[in-house]
Amino acid sequence: MQTLIQSAVQDLKFQKQQAVEAYCAKRRAPVFFEHYTKAIERALAVLWLELFPAGPLCLLATGGFGRGEMYPYSDVDLAIVSPEPLTEQQQEKAEIFVQALWDMQLSPAVKIGSVEELCESVREDITGDTAFLEARFLFGSHVLAEQLLQRMGLQRDTAAFIEAKMVEMQQRHAKSQGSGAVLEPNIKTCPGGLRDIHTMLWLARAQGLDAPLSTLISQG
What pTM, to 2 d.p., does this model score? Predict the structure, then answer.
């Protein structure tokens, strides 16, 4: 296993450097996103097939990883989903999987649980619900992935979600007041910044619409 991780680390470093070079050649963020996202997915595939070659589980990309917007030091948002609460053996393998990601010098942010457990975990968690709104299937059971996302979609109160995201945006803007923010604005959290673009996409997706960020960037 350790040899496998070491090999994956070296390959990921090489692929990440190629992604940086591709970005430098064209100076377009979607170019880096595409190359780096694929590099991470290849590394995940190696680990997943080693630890979960067959069985009822699935792996989802969520959050920024789900939408394919991976910056050089972004967290890798993931969900390991099972039809029932994980067995002791499955839990041990999941822990090995997460530790391997740290060993690969990634920053994993992983939710692990059954469909019921994950649905319950985001019921009152707007951030978690938002992350799953951008979920993308990676490996394992397609049926289980569809079951989870359908359940989450049905339990989501669209009106309440929209209201919560608007309040969240207003609070973020309030923190961006003052001369310091004007002189040196945070391009992610300031009014009109990247997080506001994300918010528009989340509100659209919650209403059944879809507009990838990469499409907006390439058209901008």
Answer: 0.88
